[in-house]
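Dear Dr. L.,

I hope this message finds you well. Following up on our conversation about the binding site, I have prepared a predicted three-dimensional model of the protein together with iron/sulfur cluster. For your records, I am including the exact sequence and ligand specification that went into the calculation, followed by the structure tokens. Please feel free to forward this to your student if that is useful.
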Amino acid sequence: MNMNRRTFVIHSLVGSAALAIAGAGRAEAPKVLETDPNAVALGYKDDATKADKAKFPKYAAGQHCGSCQLYQGPATGLGNCPLFAGKAVPAAAWCSAYVKKA
Ligand code: SF4
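The resulting structure of the complex is given below.
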């Protein structure tokens, strides 16, 4: 193997390993379950419109994770919330800790 080919092979291997590591870092966290104890405590619902309005009268139509100050993620699909570390929350979900995005 000449030096240029050897260098190319080494760079390819290093590049592949870096891509594999980056790919692993992007793996999506599992979605919060409504039955998780902290989800139950916070009145969390995957679908904000299903929020328990009797138990959480502060809920108002239009509130959902996607418009919450604590939400980090795309306007649709899944994002992250520090109250549910290691889990993903749908933008359409809601919990009683909702704070309208400034
Ligand atoms: S705090 Fe906000 S982003 Fe987090 S689950 Fe509750 S409503 Fe969604």
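In brief: The chain has two domains: 1-28, 31-102.

With kind regards,
A. P.
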